[in-house]
TrEMBL record:
Essential cofactor(s): Zn(2+)
A GO term for molecular function: metal ion binding
Name of the protein this chain belongs to: Geranylgeranyl transferase type-2 subunit beta
Membrane-spanning segments: none
The organism of origin for this protein: Quillaja saponaria (Soap bark tree)
């Protein structure tokens, strides 16, 4: 088995930050905030967050905030709850949450909760359990979880639970690993994991491991490095991660590295990108791969960052 090409991945992430005019960065422009979260969290897990200019990043993030309190994916782009969580997470990485007007961000998120407990992603109203997770995670990081109707938020997520133990994006929606992470993560943060049938869900999640060792998002689909994160984090939160073959997942992720130029792809020999590089490294961190900082499975931030927020050290 190969090893993690950590230095190459650091170089890859830093080079993506600098390339602002090529196709990938233009195509990614509207979600640059998410890209910043993926890239910078990867650097932190690798112990290299100090290779970026903190002040530059913080001032760019704050220039993406709107009057409503929400953040856009880049300067001049509409606010959305997706980018708002990424902005808060990146500020948390740098221990800079104090630059935020916390009430303003809180009011924005609170305004997106609907009567049935669900959350919309923005003023246009699309509803998805992803947005429930984001709202809950974001408010918890800001110590403002009490500002939403937690009971209704839990109730809505539970209403999206399926017979197979998994969760979908709305009631009756098909179970999917990404959606399961969001629902399990939100329930974990709200102290409501007792609503989950851990053995049933654990079984469904373990069946996501294919022969090659990687994990898929749904039955019959190809394995993909990003599902290492969605599936493993969920299994850890419900205490069933020992049900899968960890060594084989590690090997699959390492096989998806570009060992020459850095970066990790979805499957071996595909083109690398920041998204899969983050989920690959984060997945290895969950598997306690040597040399990586541990990551919190519910907040998707390094454990030391989460501890600083909740324990103050
Ligand atoms: Zn993927």
């Amino acid at each position: 088995m190969g090893e993690l090409a950590a230095d190459k991945h650091v170089k890859f992430i830093l080079s993506v930050e600098k390339r602002k005019d090529d196709f990938e960065s233009v195509a990614m422009e509207h979600l640059r905030m998410n890209g910043a979260y993926w890239g910078l969290t990867t650097l932190d897990l690798l112990g290299k967050l100090d290779s970026v200019d903190l002040h530059e990043v913080v001032s760019w993030i704050m220039s993406c905030q709107h009057e409503s309190g929400g953040f856009g994916g880049n300067v001049g782009h509409d606010p959305h709850i997706l980018y708002t969580l990424s902005a808060v997470q990146v500020l948390a990485l740098f221990d800079k949450l104090d630059v935020l007007d916390v009430d303003k961000v809180t009011n924005y998120i609170v305004s997106l909760q609907n009567e049935d407990g669900s959350f919309s992603g923005d003023i246009w109203g699309e509803i998805d359990t992803r947005f429930s997770y984001i709202a809950v995670c974001c408010l918890s990081l800001l110590h403002r979880l009490d500002k939403i109707d937690v009971e209704k938020a839990v109730h809505y997520i539970v209403s999206c639970k399926n017979m197979d133990g998994g969760f979908g994006c709305t009631p009756g929606g098909e179970s999917h690993s990404g959606q399961i992470f969001c629902c399990v993560g939100a329930l974990a943060i709200m102290g409501s994991l007792h609503h989950i049938d851990k053995d049933l869900l654990g079984w469904w999640l373990c069946e996501r491991q294919v022969k090659a060792g990687g994990l898929n998002g749904r039955p019959e689909k190809l394995p993909d490095v990003c599902y290492s994160w969605w599936v493993l984090s969920s299994l850890i939160m419900i205490d069933r991660v020992h049900w899968i073959n960890k060594e084989k997942v590690v090997k699959f992720i390492l096989d998806c590295q570009d060992t020459e130029n850095g970066g990790i792809s979805d499957r071996p020999d595909d083109a690398v990108d920041v998204y899969h590089t983050y989920f690959g490294v984060a997945g290895l961190s969950l598997l306690e791969y040597p040399g990586l900082k541990p990551i919190d499975p519910a907040y998707a931030l390094p454990v030391d960052v989460v501890n600083k927020i909740f324990i103050g050290k």
